Structure formats: C-alpha cells, structure tokens
User: Fold this.
Amino acid sequence: MTAPSTIREYDISARSTPVFGRVLCNARNHHFIVDGPVQNGCPGEAVTPAELFLAGIAACGVELVQVVARAEGVEVGSISARISGEIDRERPVRDDVTVFTSVRLDLELAGVEQSKAEHLVELFKHT
Assistant:
C-alpha cells in the first residue's frame, strides 16, 4: 500500500473582464468574480482580493480545527471564525510588496469546554 502524498497542489486561474477592475476566477469547476477595491478605481461590488485572502484563512481555520478535533477524538459543535486585517500604506511592513500590517483571527467553538477548545486552537496553530 502506498502512503498518501504529503504534497497538495492547487491550480487557480484569473483573467480580466470587460469591466475595469473586475476579474473572473476559476478553481476546478467553480467560477467566481473578484473586484478590485473602489480606492483603486475598481467596482468594489464583489469580494475584493484582500477579503478573499482573509476568507481563505478563516475557512482554513474552521476546517483545520474540525480536523484536529476529530483526530483528538473531541466532539465539537459549531465552529466560527472572524478575521480582520489592515493595510496601512503609511507604515508598510515591506518595501517590495504590499502585505497586511495586522491580521486578527478569532475562533469560537461551541459545545466543548473552554480548556479543550483552547487545546484545539493551540494544536491548530501548529498544524
């Protein structure tokens, strides 16, 4: 029997549309629109790249806490995440690329005692 691969590959594509600042993205057979922010002269109606990036982190947090809880044999009710990020262009973290100045991720686990919830979150941080 062959061990499962530890490599995970992802293939996403994005292309411009006739609307300035609107991008059509594809992940497997899923298609979605991303808009640049209004500060860049873009529509800002659909999810922006920064929001999509943060949503990916929040979704990853929820999913991985579920995986860690299952591996630990801990029953958990619902798990929710709230994430916020800030880009301060007057205080850039790096000169060569734009990155978030700060990001805060809060996880809430229902149906599990506080000490177990804290343990699961610690395990998630090291996953």
About this structure: The chain has a mean pLDDT of 95. The radius of gyration is 18 Å. The first helix runs from residue 49 to 72.
